[in-house]
Amino acid sequence: MSVRYGLLTLLFHQTNHGYELKVEIEALLGSKGKINPGQIYTTLDRLIRDQHVSFVRIDDQDRKLYQINAEGKKELEHWLLEPVPYHASKGDFQFKWSCARKICFDQEKVMLDQQKAMIMKDVMELTKLKTEFLLQGDENKYLLISGTLLHLEADLNWIHQVENRNRS
Questions:
Q1: What average pLDDT does range 67-88 have in this prediction?
Q2: What pTM did the predictor assign?
Q3: How many CB atoms lie within 10 A of CB 18?
């Protein structure tokens, strides 16, 4: 999960202030946890430094309002299209997908296809490795890889479910 990309997602359609961004990013995360307000402001400072976000003005309640810049939109879209490797937390891809949905990302299908391709590559490599361990008689490694393959299969099934719901 990346606070950086969560903030870019939330600023994609509208300017906002720090506390509201904190509340909305926690909603994006669902049950995954709470965000420290300091992390929001530190990340906003970095996004400003990197010229992905700008401070717009202070509103009538003395809150700083922020907006995404063209470079920030470009950075967010690049991140959305980058597949998430299996060794990363699988929650990372679900978070990324939630961000894509939040901004009505028009390349969601490309994003899903790239993620499926990465999973299939991992499945093929692990299946070959699983066979080697079976032939070597290494039951423990065979079973560990079998478990990983089941997780990858579940991820593929979830992506297929998303695609089928998109068609409806």
A1: 88
A2: 0.73
A3: 17
